[in-house]
Amino acid sequence: MKQQAERPWVLVRGAGDLATGTIVRLHRCGFRVVVTECADPSAIRRRAALCEAVWQGETQVEGVRCRRIDRPDAAAAAAQAGVIPLLIDPQAACVAALRPAAVVDAILAKRNLGTGRDMAPVTVGLGPGFTAGQDVDAVIETMRGHHLGRVIRAGSAIPNTGVPGVIAGAAAERVIHAPAGGTMTFVTDAAGKPVEIGARVTKGQVIARVGDMPVYATISGVLRGLIRAGYPVTKGLKIADIDPRPEQAAYCDTISDKARAIAGGVVEALLTLAQEKDVKLL
């Protein structure tokens, strides 16, 4: 296997839970990955999101470590140590210094926040907001269903419906949004145990507070995601996710099936495009 220092960079924009599936897959496949994030990521599936390195300095998902660094020139040492470097760089200004061979926009903002084909020889965008052949070389479908993970070489992904995918009969009701603006605080249950990710909750139970407003569980199930305590949320922000399947309590700190499907599409797109363009990625 080639040394990390000899490989070109693959830059992934975003490190939320779905992006983390791609980051971990690329790292395990031998790509030299560097990640950019915003200064205040609002991931709710925190135990499965490498963006937690922004807050903690370093984190890991499924044994893959990610470390926040301050400068692009610190990325190589981290990668050589087997750690994925993460820069707080929402505009991806580090492209000029790192000159990546590929850029993957995994922000999943439902719109393009500045990724263009001039950023790298190979460019891939995840989900709606990108047009393959125009602003990126390929788009990966992120909508649950038959086409999840499909590589799109002309056109765009399915438009955002605003309704989460159905899981065990639950769709919109499994995602909870802030009832008001304010600081997120955690609570305890009737037994005095902290209500955190992985807890089993019942419909109507108070699972958190935003300012003085209680946040209620909309369905019964496993609290799969909960935005970090102390986060200054705005009204309507997604702050929690409940999975109605009880067995999911064991999987809250692992990459989801959806994220793995998307990651497979990214690997396919990168390898196909690199071969077509005669670009070295590995």
Overall number of strands: 17
| Share in helix | 10-25%
Q: Determine the N-to-C terminus distance.
A: 9 Å
Read across the widest sheet, the strand sequence of neighbours is 3-4-5-2-1-6-7-8-9
Strand content: 25-35%
Round the mean pLDDT to the nearest integer and report it: 94
Characterize the largest beta sheet: strand count, sense, and whether it forms a barrel: 9 strands, mixed
Helical/strand content category: alpha/beta
- The rounded Rg comes to 19 Å
Number of helices: 5
Shape: globular
Give a description of the structure.
The strands form 3 sheets. This protein has a 9-stranded mixed sheet. A 4-stranded antiparallel sheet has the order 10-17-15-12, with no helix packed on it. A 4-stranded antiparallel sheet has the order 14-13-11-16, with no helix packed on it. The relative contact order is 0.17. It has helices at residues 17-28, 53-56, 75-80, 95-98, 257-277; strands spanning 9-13, 32-37, 58-61, 64-69, 84-88, 102-105, 122-126, 138-140, 151-152, 175-177, 182-186, 200-201, 206-210, 213-216, 221-226, 232-233, 238-243. Helix 1 crosses helix 5 (257-277). The protein is α/β, with parallel strands linked by helices and 282 residues long. The longest helix has 21 residues, at 257-277. Helix 3 links the parallel strand 4 and strand 5. The protein contains 5 helices and 17 strands.
